[in-house]
C-alpha cells in the first residue's frame, strides 16, 4: 500500500487516503506536535518523510514529517561548553554579559539546529554506518591506545571516566551518530579544489609589494588649560554615554569549602566489610577471552569466500596449525603476522556477529565461518579469564579510600545542607545562616560586571549578583557549585543602577577628552592641507612636506600584512587603488600611536609566482581547496535548512 502511495503521491486519491489514515492518530498523538515547540525544548527541526520528499507541510500531512527536538538541556550543555572555551581564549578580557547576549545564544542554537538538519538529511539519503566503520574509528582513537595499539582495558577505563557515554554500548551509539552526521559534510568538504590560474592570481596578490612615501604628522600636545567651559558643556552633552557610571552591586557571600573541614576518621573493619557485601558485584572482573582469527575478505564472490573460510575451519579442527593458516590466508594485516592473535577481548569491543560467536564458544574450540562487514572469520578461542569476584582482602585498601572520600563528601554535603536550611528559614538574611553553620560571611563591592574578580566572576555568581529578582527581593540566591567541594551562597546587599555621572564629578575627564579631540583635529587639518597641496598632480608629496616643515620617508617594496608603518596603516595602504601611470595615488591614515600620516603610492609590484617554493605552493593550494570544500558544505546545510522547517522558542534560551 505504501508503494502505491509513493507512486501516486501527487494525486487526489493519495491525499484522501492520507487524510483517512491520519484520523486515528489525532486521538493519541502528543499535543505538542500539533502546535509549536514543546514546552521544555528550545527548537524543533521538521523534515518531510524519507519516502515522500515532496510532502506538503500543511496539516494533517505535516503529521507525517519527521521531528528532531533540541531540548533546553541540550542547549544549556552546549552553551556552557562554549562559555568555557570563550573564557579560556579571552582570559581576563572575557565579558560574561556580552556572552549572555541573545545574539550569541542564537549563534550557538544555530549550530545545534544545523547538526539536527544534517542528521535528518543523512536519514533522507539512506546513510547507514556499519559496525566495522564504528569499530575501526574507535580503535584509532589515541586515548584508547597503549604503545600505539588499541587496548580494551584503556578503552573501558577512558569511557567510564568520560562523563558522556559511560558504557561501550552508549559510546558505540554516540560514535555511530557522529559518523552518520559527518558523512555528507565531510564528503563535500573533501571535494573542494582550486585551479592553477586561481592559485597564481592569489600568489601574485600575497607576494605583492608597494612603493610608498610617508609623511608622519607629529602629535600636537593636548592643552587642557585652553579648554573653555562652553566646550566642556557641549562635549558632555554630546558624549554623555562615555561618562556613565555602570550598574554596581555590593554582596554578602558564604563559602563552604571541603578542604577546610576536619579530616574524617578512618572506617572500622565492620563498616568496610558491610560496604564490600553491599557492592560485591562491582568487584567482579569482566570476562575476557583470548582469541585468534583468520579473515577472508568477501570481495565480489561471497560464496567462494565463505567456502574458503569453511575449509580453513575444517583444517583447523582437524589439527592443522591455526597460526600458520592465519599467516598464509588471513586478510587482516593487524593480526596476520602474529598468527591471527587478537589478544584479550571483552564484550563491547568487537562487531556484533563476531562478538556473539566468540562469547558462545568454549576454550579450545574452532568456530566459523562468521560473517561481518569485514568478510568471513574463522575463530579460535584459546583462553577465558575473569568473571570471578575479588576477595575482601584484595580490595580492602580501595574500600577504605572510598569510604574516607564518602565520609568527607558526606560532611561537606551535611554542612551545605545545614546552611541552605538556615537560609530557607530566613531567606532575606545570610548572616544568621552563616553563624548557625559556623561559617564566615564575607562582603564585597560595590563592583560592576566588568570589575568582578575571583569567585565573584564565576558566571553563575555574576548572574545572581545582577539578577533583577535577587536585587528586588533582597533574598539569598541558590547555592552555586564553583568546583567539587566548593559551594557559595550569595545575597545582594546594595544596588546602584547605571546612571549618568554629574558633570562636576567628571569635569577633568571631559576637559581631557576635549583637549585630545582638539589636538587630533589639528593633526587632521595638517594632513588635509598636505593632500590639498598635491591634489593638482604637479607637486610631489616630499616637496609639499618640505614646505610644511615635515619630511617624507620612503618605504620601498613594502610587503603586505607586516606591521609597518602599523597593522591598520599597512592594510589602508594595500586597500588603496594602484596609481595611474606617472601619477601617484594619495591618501591619509592613522598610526597605532594616534598620529596621522599622509602617503603617496608610487608603484605596485606583483608577486613573482616562480619564486614561491613548491612546498609552500602545495600547502596554500590545499588550504584554498579546504576553504572551497567548507563553503560547499555550508551551502549544502543552508539549502537543506530552506527545505526543512525550523521553529525556535527564544523564551527557553
From TrEMBL:
<feature type="domain" description="PpiC">
    <location>
        <begin position="286"/>
        <end position="383"/>
    </location>
</feature>
<keyword id="KW-0812">Transmembrane</keyword>
<feature type="transmembrane region" description="Helical">
    <location>
        <begin position="12"/>
        <end position="34"/>
    </location>
</feature>
<keyword id="KW-0997">Cell inner membrane</keyword>
<dbReference type="Pfam" id="PF13624">
    <property type="entry name" value="SurA_N_3"/>
</dbReference>
<dbReference type="InterPro" id="IPR000297">
    <property type="entry name" value="PPIase_PpiC"/>
</dbReference>
<dbReference type="InterPro" id="IPR046357">
    <property type="entry name" value="PPIase_dom_sf"/>
</dbReference>
<dbReference type="InterPro" id="IPR023058">
    <property type="entry name" value="PPIase_PpiC_CS"/>
</dbReference>
<keyword id="KW-1133">Transmembrane helix</keyword>
<dbReference type="GO" id="GO:0003755">
    <property type="term" value="F:peptidyl-prolyl cis-trans isomerase activity"/>
</dbReference>
<keyword id="KW-0697">Rotamase</keyword>
<keyword id="KW-0143">Chaperone</keyword>
<dbReference type="GO" id="GO:0005886">
    <property type="term" value="C:plasma membrane"/>
</dbReference>
<dbReference type="InterPro" id="IPR027304">
    <property type="entry name" value="Trigger_fact/SurA_dom_sf"/>
</dbReference>
<keyword id="KW-1003">Cell membrane</keyword>
<keyword id="KW-0472">Membrane</keyword>
<dbReference type="InterPro" id="IPR052029">
    <property type="entry name" value="PpiD_chaperone"/>
</dbReference>
<keyword id="KW-0413">Isomerase</keyword>
<dbReference type="Pfam" id="PF13616">
    <property type="entry name" value="Rotamase_3"/>
</dbReference>
<comment type="similarity">
    <text>Belongs to the PpiD chaperone family.</text>
</comment>
<protein>
    <recommendedName>
        <fullName>Periplasmic chaperone PpiD</fullName>
    </recommendedName>
</protein>
